[in-house]
Amino acid sequence: STIDSMVVPALHRFIENIFIYEMRPWEALERSFGEDRHALEASPVFLCFTDMRAKVTVSRMLAYSNFAESRPWGLDMYCCEHCGGPSQNIRFNACRQKSYGNKWLQMKMKYYCQQCKVSKQAIPAPDWVNSCRSDSMYRVWYDWPLTHEQLASIGVRC
């Protein structure tokens, strides 16, 4: 499988970062997968771990944002607000001027739904989508699973 050949090296680095370099789980995941664009393009990564210091269980998704591949802000489940069409039927593009560096997440998006022929402009990233470290442009994370309100904000009809 292609996914195996892309994901296994990053997974190996993740385990190495945890056990050899004694990194915290989320930092290890960001370093291992966040720096490997090919692994994240193949599949977003889910991590559930217990933060022993805060005594809380955390579950997050690490993803690669790619408008051209129908994954705005790493969300491959984005749907048309008008007809509910899936992201595969939508063309996503940056709206107006692109932002770079640590401000890239402020870039607004526009989309055109090929299913219902509706377009929408100047869509900001949801406030629950977080940018990874500043040197990991287009890498995002968000708590997982998404709530009904979060799903509704990206057009998913629950």
The class by helix and strand makeup works out as: alpha+beta
- Runs in which pLDDT lies below 50 for 5 or more consecutive residues are none
Strand order, largest beta sheet: 1-2-7-6
Radius of gyration: 16 Å
Number of helices: 4
What distance separates the N and C termini?
A: 32 Å
Helix content: 25-40%
How would you describe this structure to a colleague?
This protein has 158 residues and is α+β, with helices and mostly antiparallel strands. Helix content is 25%, strand content 24%. The protein has four helices and seven strands. The model has no long low-confidence stretch (mean pLDDT 90).
Features:
24% strand, 3-stranded antiparallel β-sheet, 4-stranded antiparallel β-sheet, 158 residues, globular
Topology, pairings included?
Elements lengths: L1 H18 L5 H10 L2 H6 L2 E7 L4 E9 L25 E5 L14 E5 L5 E5 L6 E2 L7 E5 L4 H6 L5
Antiparallel strand pairs: 1-2, 2-7, 3-4, 4-5, 6-7
Task: Briefly summarize what is shown.
This protein is α+β, with helices and mostly antiparallel strands. 25% of the residues lie in helices and 24% in strands.
